[in-house]
Write a structure and sequence with these properties.
Blueprint: E1 2-6, H1 10-18, E2 24-26, H2 29-33, H3 39-49, E3 53-57, H4 63-74, E4 80-85, H5 88-99, E5 103-109, H6 112-121, E6 125-128, H7 130-135, H8 140-153, E7 159-162, H9 168-177, E8 181-184, H10 186-192, H11 196-209
Parallel strand pairs: 1-2, 1-8, 2-3, 3-4, 4-5, 5-6, 6-7, 7-8
Bound molecules: erythose-4-phosphate (E4P).
The site of erythose-4-phosphate has 11 residues, from helix 7.
Length: 215
Amino acid sequence: MKIFIDTANLEEIRQAVDMGILDGVTTNPTLMSKEKGAFKDILKEICRLVPGSVSAEVVAVDAPGMIREGRELAKIADNITIKIPTIPEGLKAIRALSAEGIWVNATLIFNPMQGLLVAKAGATYASPFVGRLDDICHVGMDLIEQLITIYANYDVKTQVLVASVRSTQHVIEAAMMGAHVCTMPYKVLMQLMKHPLTDSGLKQFLADWEKVNKG
Ligand code: E4P
């Protein structure tokens, strides 16, 4: 499973890159609004740091506007992926941009048929939002299972990108289900590496090392 980080924060991205496990980055207008500086400069720097896909979201809601914005954003770097909302106008934009060879991430997916339609339109990635479904008393991960099954039934090339991840449990389940990609906040990424027995074990080893005759 590819690991993406869900942030526009350069320091978090640098940390994840240095750990050597980062395959890509997802941003959205909310994440961008938390950062200082011009958004295009931030995107350029993210694309320089990360060799894989970097999602940048359009804000137009009509197909011609999305296509125009998508083409502009795609000029920033070869690894830019254009995030398009999963609405009827979005399908037209997904079709047009992917026909031009531009990577597209269909965002805000909440049901399996939205996932099938964006795949038919040619999306590179489909982003189901699991945490936001959990928030309204659905089981977000059920949607991941459904999408993986549907894509496998028809040998669909679109990759399931698990988004709106809130916990390590989401990541574990995504990997168990065989999701292609999981994007997560920096905090969740760091929690994946955490275990109290690792910490106490290391503490003990270091304490015992002090008793070793190093002469
Ligand atoms: C990523 O592509 C999504 O925009 C993001 O995961 C949404 O997460 P949220 O539901 O925590 O805002």
